[in-house]
Amino acid sequence: MKDFRQRELVERARLVIPNGMYGHESVASLPAGFPQFFSRADGASIWDADGNKFVDLMCAYGPNLLGYGNAGVEWAAERQRALGDTSTGPSEIMVKLAEDFVAMIDHADWAMFCKNGTDATSMAMVTARAYRGRRKILLARGAYHGAAPWNTPGLAGIVAEDRAHVIYFDYNDLNSLADAIRGHEGDIAGIFATPFRHEAFANQTEPSLEYAQGVRRVCDELDALLVVDEVRAGFRLSRDCTWSLLGVRPDLSCWGKVLGNGYPISALLGAEKARIAAGSIYATGSFWFSAVPMAAAVETLRQVRETDYLERLTDMALRFRAGVAVQAATYGFGVMQTGPAQMTQILFEDDADLRRGFHWVREALEGGLYLHPWHNMFFCSAMTEADLEVSLTATDRAFAALKAVGGKLPAQDNAAILTRIARMAKSAA
């Protein structure tokens, strides 16, 4: 695999960017050889800076839902760009987007738009506090809700005061939730939930019906707001809020990633009961009202409503999962494929130091498939039969390579990787 341009860019980046890269798209915690910089993307594929092509099962860590460069989304964006993007005030497209989104999501009566998932979850947190003038926010232990001081898993620069009113409980455990509430009953502002437990490093967990309905009941009893964070899972499992599949309607829901199919836009949706609270907070950004991402989002939502995108990506995801399971059994490896197939996470059994996982994804990369060794992945509706064939050929190649080295797996090229991962896992817990 060519990497000349990649190595050049990495060296240049180290001179002008802290650590050469930062945030969740840094490859510092991935096996050596994973590309950091990319040159283009189309459909379900990406090309790195050296022109190496990969079927991309990270989908930009989620935003690619309909395919990179989706013709309808790009046409809508270009048409709006010709009219204007960031102006002194929003375009009328903002009203259209809010109308369309509210009409699609069962619990929603209003919408507010922003740029990132962290923006949306932070607005939800402040809205919940404004609702009844309370302070305490309940989060599932280890749950990821963004990168603001009140929720980031990285603790450098964070002080205790940033989280003084955040209380943690165990996901899928109503007894733990009750224990977290005890003593704070008159000061609970809101409870956050993810559609399923999709944190890194550990097996993903589906919520039980009893748990989801129990959280809703507790919020009603406390007159606190239930917030479902759809930033990662939105529109990959349902055309509505994911907990609608469990018969649960949140008071607030946070959306991002897929909303503009790659264009920078996120949203907070809410029920009527939270309208006054949402209207009382101050939340804004110079680029939050830009029209081009909103036009892209209008078209994305249209395709969500009117096409079989969900059925197609689900079919590809299920077939990939089945293929990997057969391959793993054939080569004699135990793998854990957890969470919904559309957002699968693949971990090896008896692989606490991730040596098998790292070796496997590195070999798959050589075969033209971009996987992740400890984070959930994503499928998009642009994946073709040819893409699926490339993917399963690459995973088969990777299993064969792993089998060939037997128990003589090499140590990781960078021992600091595992230390960094351990630190991230500890802070997330």
Description:
The chain folds into 2 domains: 4-61 and 308-428, Aspartate Aminotransferase, domain 1 (Alpha-Beta Complex), CATH 3.90.1150.10; 71-306, Aspartate Aminotransferase, domain 2 (3-Layer(aba) Sandwich), CATH 3.40.640. 39% of the residues lie in helices and 13% in strands. The longest helix is centred in the last third of the chain and has 23 residues, at 309-331. The model has no long low-confidence stretch (mean pLDDT 95). By secondary structure, it is α/β, with parallel strands linked by helices. The chain is globular and about 60 Å long. The chain has helices at 4-16, 71-83, 93-104, 117-132, 174-181, 209-222, 275-280, 291-306, 309-331, 355-366, 385-405, 416-428; strands at residues 38-42, 45-48, 53-56, 110-114, 136-140, 166-169, 188-193, 225-229, 252-255, 266-270, 335-338, 345-348, 369-370. The strands form 3 sheets. The protein has a 7-stranded mixed sheet, sandwiched between helices. The chain has 12 helices and 13 strands. This is Aminotransferase class III-fold pyridoxal phosphate-dependent enzyme. Belongs to the class-III pyridoxal-phosphate-dependent aminotransferase family. Pfam families: Aminotran_3 (PF00202). GO terms for molecular function: pyridoxal phosphate binding; transaminase activity.
